Amino acid sequence: MTAPLSTLELDDLRALAGAMIPASEAHGVPGADDAEIFAGIARAAGPSAGALRRLTADLGQAPGSLAGMDRTALETRLAQAVGPDIGALYALVLMSYYRDDRVMTALGLEPRPPFPLGHPLEDADPSLLDPVKARAPFWRPAP
Amino acid sequence: MGESVDVVIIGAGASGAAAAWSLSDTRMHIVCLEQGDWPDPSRYPSTGRDWELRAMSDFSFNPNQRRNPGDYPINEDNSPIKIANFNGVGGGTVLYAGHFPRFHPSDFRVRSLDGVGEDWPIDYATLEPFYDENDRIMGVSGLQGDPANPPRPERMKPIPLGRAGAAVARGFNARGWHWWPSDSAVATESHGGRAPCINLGHCLHGCAQGAKASTDITYWPLARRAGVEVRTRCRVREITTNDEGMATGVVYYDGEGVERFLGAEVVILACNGIGTPRLLLNSTSKRFPDGLANSSGLVGRNLMFHPYAYISGRFEETLDGGRGPSNGLWSQEFYETSLDRGFVRGFTFEFSRGQGPVMTALSGLGRGRLPLGAGHHDAYRRLHQKTTGMVAICEDLPELHNRVTLDPDLRDAHGIPAPRIDYTLSDNSRRMLSFAIERATEVLTAAGAVEVHSESPLAIGGWHLMGTARMGRDPATSVVNEWGRSHDVKNLFVIDGSVFVTSAGVNPTSTIQALALYVADAIKSRLANLFD
Q1: β-strand B259-269 against B492-494: which pairing, if any?
Q2: Engineering a disulfide at B343: which of A29, B431, B445, B513 sits with its beta carbon 3.0 to 4.6 angstroms away?
Q3: A35 domain residue, yes or no
Q4: Averaged pLDDT, B448-460
Q5: Does domain B3-41+52-526 have CATH number 3.50.50.60?
Q6: Does the residue A98 lie in any domain?
Q7: What is the tens place of the pLDDT at every residue in B80-130?
Q8: Which residues contact B168 (CB under 8 A, 6 or more apart)?
Q9: Out of A20, A78, A114, whose CB is closest to B200?
Q10: Do A115 and B49 touch (CB under 8 A)?
């Protein structure tokens, strides 16, 4: 069983999250290191603890040191990282980030589950089907 | 003396439910044993904010990932296509998209027409009344008049195309190719007490609205009112037989893990193309040392999936995202054999609408379209609600080496040997998939896509499990006869996708259910001499 993340490791994870998805004033969204978003990431991080430790080691850093790195340098290092560990951590961050109310609202989505209100869906122009309706049946008869 | 009933049905999914309902009018004592539980729509993923995440955990298609108490493990290491199923009342219909095409008449005559596979011992005309009856119970939306198919009975109005469907339709029109609003087991109007679709967009992980026809809310309420009993969390270990070679009942573990025996005059297997051969192979005895109903040696062989290609395009215009059913239109322009394409048989294109916010991010990441850091937000907005596409569902041909066996080591929670899958994609399938990707790329480009991505074969796409106990008239080359009865055991029937002789190039659920109704009808019409 993987040991839970220490406080220092959670600091590292938060730094990584912020480097992966930074806040954007232009788009009106927080970064993935936002306190509320990161709380969700931290809750789900258990299975990714091994990936975080390996990635930190691969980056040549001691636990807790990523949080002190320059953001641009960290982004550069992350961009060079390959393999399943960085993929797993990126997925962990994305899955929490794109459920946040502020992020969904900025994307034009209502921050709610699909049920019970559902969604409107447009009917298309029925004349789109006219050329197909004009075709003779072409299914193959069988003996 | 243990408990005994007239009929035991193993499995409460698409076929078990249909057969139970049909047989219920005989007033026989019928019990259905289901290893999973009743689904609870109030807990389906689309009722919560974590709906996209749960599609990858407790509502994943894949039992090895889902690991619910009703699931059993499957060794699928030697298959490029992984198994998708659902173990619970409703079976695969709980997690299917609701695509409801029928086989074509030509699909029953593959050997005669194209010189491959085998002909079925029945034809389209035999199944047609059962297709119609099944459509009535399940509730089907669509549009009559499709030139690619024989006539259909009246349907509920089609699922709206939405912006994404309209874009794809324009692409097909630009190529001059067939498309049509698809037959879908999604109610677009109130049907049989079910509310109409409100475009939750999460059909594949349980429909909280109840608009999608899963058999827990279609056949089972009817069958239970007529007296059929469903026992959940009951996993069958083996079918027992007597010295005369007749099935005597089943040994199963109940919800508390207690081993029980249920005697039965008739045993009906409805466990899908993996579960059925697994149970037959686990039911060995002195008389049947190679497994039950296996004198042909074909139990577990000829496993067919539908190899899928997924082709998506990125558009500049805003489309539907994850809002609305994933299905809505199909194209069968390339369904029938044309040898100049470089392969035999064919495929259906099925529209795949779009994705929600989390899946947009994850798929963008997986395809290298979504970078880290400063460029992330701009890149995400180029994908958000701007992708749509289609899948190509390709006919798989039966091959002996594609098979289900018992894994020598893997066991389920009750210690029952688990299935192992050995499957190789054929050269014919590879050529068909490549052709389909090229044509879909043309469609999406004509529709305005600025970028096209494809994945083939779709690894997660082992939804359709067929061929592993096929039907036929010759006991040397088939497991059950032309009305679903085992050649070897005259009170044992198989009604799921295992009996398929060939796979066609369409989703199998409506055909599985039509066959179940047909076999049930055959049983009812032969009750006086059923075991002769």
Answers
A1: parallel
A2: B431
A3: yes
A4: 96
A5: yes
A6: yes
A7: 999 999 999 999 999 999 999 999 999 999 999 999 999 999 999 999 999
A8: B179, B329, B351, B388, B389, B390, B443, B444, B447
A9: A114
A10: no
Do B150 and B337 meet the contact criterion of CB atoms below 8 Å apart?
A: no
Q: Which chain B residues are closer than 8 Å to A98 by Cβ? A: 357-358, 360-361
Chain A residues closer than 8 Å to B178 by CB: 132, 135, 138
Alpha carbon distance B280, B488 (integer Å): 12
Do the strands B451-455 and B492-494 form a parallel or antiparallel pair, or are they unpaired? unpaired
8 A C-beta contact, residue B211 and residue B197: yes
Nearest to B51 among A27, A114, A137 (CB): A114
- Strand ranges of the sheet holding B403-411, from the earlier edge strand across to the other edge: B75-78, B417-422, B403-411
Q: A23-71 pLDDT, tens per residue?
A: 999 999 999 999 999 999 999 888 888 888 888 888 888 888 888 888 8
| Domain assignment of residue A78, yes or no | yes
For residue B412, give every residue at least 6 positions away whose Cβ sits within 8 Å of its Cβ, in sequence order, or none. B72, B73, B235, B418
Chain B: give the shortest CA distance to residue A80, in Å. Answer: 10
What's the gap in Å between the CA of A101 and the closest CA on chain B?
Answer: 10
- Chain A interface, best mutation among B377, B386, B501, by max A CB count within 10 A: B377
Total domains in the fold of chain A: 1
Tell me how far the alpha carbon of residue A18 is from its chain's centroid.
12
Considering only CB atoms, which chain B residues are within 8 Å of A85? none
Task: Write the single-letter amino acid at A59.
Answer: L
**Does residue A142 sit within a domain?**
no
Q: Which helix (H) or strand (E) holds B432?
A: helix B427-447
| Whole-prediction pTM | 0.96
SS3 B237: strand
